[in-house]
User: Fold these one by one.
Assistant:
Number 1:
Amino acid sequence: MNNGPIGIFDSGVGGLTVWKEVHNLLPQESYIYLADSKNAPYGDKSTPEIISLSKKNVDFLISKGCKLIVVACNTATTNAIKLLRQTYEIPFIGIEPAIKPAALKTSTGSVGVLATKGTLASSLFQKTSKDYGKEIHILEKEGKGLVPLIEAGLIDRKETEELLNSYIQPMLKANIDSLVLGCTHYPLLIPLLRKILPENVEIIDCGRAVAKQTKAVLKNKNLLSKNSKEHFLEFYTNSDKEALEYFLKNYGIQNSVFTSVF
Ligand code: DGL
């Protein structure tokens, strides 16, 4: 089991931003990445739909021999991880908007959260937002339409910048000093965000924290890979391979994307 792959899933290419951090920290591990591109975006779906898609993804990753699963999607984590943990024995690592570090750090008392509708509406997010929003102002905004633009690779288009800008400006008016990226697709927009945001606004993304947590859980369960030589990378999609290949090229990875039915 130790040399089994780590499974990672997302609705599409967004989870690559998490995979990259996990892989940087644990380069000796094998990885199977699943992009459920056919069903993206998850953000507009109901909780039962998100749960059923998440289970399908988990079944695929388990059938491939994964030893741990990273739910590299805020929407799936906030809507489904509790049920996944109750249903399966395999360990899960999730990702959810990092309100806590933003709330602890803020000096203006205002933080912005950009996330999908499904994440913002989830009871897990609502609870966290309520817990940390007692003393500070949390500005929540749905990044409507951003995920399809990213999936289409249109990250440096004027229309993407304008849409993003329309979501950020009201937050800047409210004097935020940090912006929490509550969707794993959004770190792919950091170059655009840096153009829009003043220097004093910190972008908070918790991909690295997820990587650290993955390492800690594998270590604790004695599941860290013992074979540093033979590791592999496989990326699966149930739609066309272009989007994954486009983003993976930036990470120097080629010929590792496969189309599959799941
Ligand atoms: N990348 C995902 C997230 O973190 C899903 C976005 C979507 O499919 O709407 O929420």
Note: The two ends are 23 Å apart (CA to CA).
Number 2:
Amino acid sequence: MTEVITLFGTRPEIIKMSQMIPLLDKNFDHRFVFTGQHFSREMVEIFFDQLKLRKPDSILTPHAAETAAIVGSDYSVLIPSIAKELKNSKAEYVIVYGDTNSTLAATLAGLQYGKKIIHIEAGLRSYDKRMAEELVRVLVDHNSDILFTPTELTSSFLDKEGIKESKYIVGNSVVDATLKYLGEAEKTSKILDELKIKKDEYILVTIHRAENVDKPEKLMRILRALAANGREIILPIHPRVKKRVMEFGFKIPDSIKVIDPVGYLDMLKLLKNASLVITDSGGVQEEAITLKVPCLTLRETTERWETISAGANFLVGTESQLIDYHIKMVLNTELKKKIQQIENPYGDGKTSEKIVKILKDVI
Ligand code: UD1
Ligand code: UDP
């Protein structure tokens, strides 16, 4: 059996790889390593539990949690422990996902020890090099041996950069998890009652991009714009934002209901029943179109262009007038009804199966 090693270490990667790990276990001599980039219970364990993902064969501890909470997880901090893992591994292939520090660190260490790189969710481009994630995408794509892209558009971005071989269009595995757990979330999550909110009567917000939250003026501008809107806002707060709010000595306006990060079942319930989602997250843009919830993206650019051209997602930047204008545009029109007709550009929830089937044929 071919030896394969998968490495990842953040919340979205756990969600997006959750349906693939059992299939890799079944079909390959597979080792699964968690890089430890994310480490808090509400960012890690709750997702392993709810998505019934088996324990990793190895959980790296690149930094003490207290240190990470202060200095963050620069990719270079992650490399030594990953390199130790790969140095002793006989695996021919390393699987990495997406565009995080873990993706880059595992790719660089993999290359150093002569591994072939398999990149899942390849080809995404925001064309904004100020985003740390964009650099990771480009570097990892150009050093991968096998690439899985979600859509024709992302595959065409790779063509344009001269990457024409060994790439496959397979959809996005976030849909696998979303569709699998939506029913259970609708049935078992009590989050709407707990927060005393009703279907279609609140806006769900998630923010965490460094470009939006690391500068006090910008973070405050976004939070004020959201608060001024007068509608019920629910904000599960990402640890990066919690840390910044404390550092900056802010008080988040009272009209925003700030809650701890929620597990996947509560998140799906909150998303599915929101009148609108406002976000700068990549995964949430994909889930919004999957669940047919209108989305406003607090960025000037995105790498999820398919959601924009489908008419389900709007790039609104971070200026308060634009945020306010778009909220009204979505809530005061028939947009939500229209979005119900949109076909999901990210596939039918069978991406993990497709990827493993292709891998069985080619490696
Ligand atoms: C990372 C990814 C980003 C992804 C996001 C998903 C990179 C460059 N960025 O950003 O692409 O969208 O994960 O959520 O890899 N923290 C905790 N507990 C945790 C995780 C983070 O307290 O479990 C705090 C720490 O203070 C840490 C900070 O959040 O310093 C930032 O974490 P980090 O992993 O560096 O980046 P994210 O903002 O999470
Ligand atoms: N998510 C969650 N609970 C939360 C916030 C987000 O389960 O409190 C999920 C969300 O549904 C999506 C993923 O986390 O599947 C997105 O992660 P994040 O926004 O941190 O990262 P990105 O997708 O931007 O890389």
Note: The two ends are 10 Å apart (CA to CA).
Number 3:
Amino acid sequence: MKILKFGGTSVGTPESIRKVIEIVRAAAADESCVVVVSAFTKVTDKLIDVCEASALGGDYQASLQELERRHVEAVSELISFADQSSLVAEVKASCNELADILRGLSLLGELTPRARDLVMSFGERLSATVIAAALKGGGLPATLLDARECIKTDSQYGHAQVLFAETVSLVRRYFHERRSVTVVTGFIASTIDGHTTTLGRGGSDYTASILGAALDASAIEIWTDVDGVMTADPRIVPQARRIRKTTYEETMELSYFGAKVIYYPTIIPAREHHIPLVIKNTFNPDALGTNIGDEPSSDHSPVTAITSVAPIVLLQIKGVGLIGTKGMARRVFGALADATINVILISQASSEYSICIAIAAHEKDHALATLASEFELEIIQKRIDPICAENESAIIAVVGARMRETPGTVGRVFSAVGSRKINVRAIAQGSSELNISFVVSESDKEEAIRAIHDEFFV
Ligand code: ASP
Ligand code: MG
């Protein structure tokens, strides 16, 4: 059994859905396939817009009609004339149900996270209905499964947590009878008492991995619109190359640091069950893609890829009061956590004179106010300096599982950056040695990435 997941751009138009049908046909010749689909391109964004508009009393009719039109059009292009009318009726019935919900929201004038999840679920429900019918029309024996029947979560609407024990047993029960092709809605799930939930934006990847793990699949293929994971963002480094092979851990670091290849929770079930994750391009299916597994690549470079997060700001908490005083770090991180501010990077030298942390730039004022109030007394007593934030900066992350066995990598990274006269403001390296991260001014970001790429890949 193999899982194939097709993202929004792969199911954006009738032409791309035709490509999907051919890819599934080739895969289904060898083994049973579970086809996980996202909503059509941008549909989830549109659904969020319409539910927000309706709750604010705004006009959403035009967008709703546009949504219906896109799906009806896909049906008329992809499905044979004889089967069209029943499917169009099905699409219209879903859109009417959605219209009723939106009318309810506009009467109430409020939008709860639970209602928003219900509205978003229509994207995947509609796309899976159309794609299952298109596969059938193409001669494949496809059945449709609404993931809400099998994937169970808690009730954190918008980013629900999967209840694995319940889910695995429901999935296995459903797939007990072997089916050659099953089309499953990505992204959506439900609580034990049947309310619709979603797994976080981009969550269809995660659906694929949950099913892959539950079914002990031979592979989980993520079909997207790029050839695979790249050594750097090709818009910054034109010579960036596709990575043929990488590890779960490296991919986790890369997707956390802004390389938008895969929704990072996806990696957890796949890694636990040692199921290969393969990134493939729907628009270039012959390209080998990127294989993600347990083994690092045996290529010569100790660095696998370079990525970045920006804009961030660096906060400096410094002063004599930090030296040798226990519990200061706890207060810094505790105060930020209570204010729900996410810390992206931490660095503290052993002099203990200062703690330096990176946060997203838009949280700067909130973080400064939080820390100023936490340390108000120490600041008055001059034991801690007023907290300061540097100008907008970027974190560069250099990722590679083989760095730990290659002495000198850190030196090469910093001499490459130094030779371009780029100033490094803070450095952090985890003891896993999988990732060297450092902070530069945002205006130096691209040059720093190119410098390191030239050093390791040219
Ligand atoms: N349709 C959802 C989204 O846009 C899930 C996905 O595409 O993976 O976030
Ligand atoms: Mg996506």
Note: Residues 7-8, 38-39, 44, 123, 186-187, 201-205 surround aspartic acid (ligand 1) (CB under 6 Å).
